[in-house]
């Protein structure tokens, strides 16, 4: 009994490879890599532009953000670290209450422009984190 793969191999026509097959493959790979490089650089440029636009929109609103942040002092930081050493769960609960208070104070003064600025800053930051966590090459490039 013949194997199905043997049957398929008998059906496949036996033709010689085109003489310029290697050159065609190399050209296509070079074009693919060039396009990938252009796309990657384009995404990076868009991320830089989004970050710059976010900073530009955020600059007039910095005092709103700073007013929402309570004064941080070395003594207060030392007090919080000692609370962490005594009871990490209580310290985390206190920290979460402080964060909720800060966010609620910040939300009271939010305007559409400030939300847009923070979003424009978050997008490049998340892209940067993703690119740091990834290996830097795609699966297709790793195969080639």
Task: Give an account of the 3D structure.
By secondary structure, the protein is mostly helical. The chain has one domain (about 30-144). The protein contains seven helices and no strands. The longest helix has about 40 residues, at about 20-60. The mean pLDDT is about 80.
Global morphology:
elongated
Report the radius of gyration as a whole number of Å.
Answer: 28 Å
Strand percentage lies at under 5%
Report the uncertain regions.
none
The SSE order reads: HHHHHHH
Counting H and I runs of at least 4 residues, what is the number of helices?
Answer: 7
The overall number of domains is 1
| Number of DSSP strand runs | 0
Search tags:
0% strand, single chain, elongated
Summarize the model shown.
The protein has helices spanning 4-11, 21-58, 62-68, 74-86, 88-108, 112-133, 139-143. It is an all-alpha fold and 144 residues long. The mean pLDDT is 79.
How does the SSE layout of this entry go?
Elements: H1 4-11, H2 21-58, H3 62-68, H4 74-86, H5 88-108, H6 112-133, H7 139-143
Helix pairs in contact: 2-6, 4-5
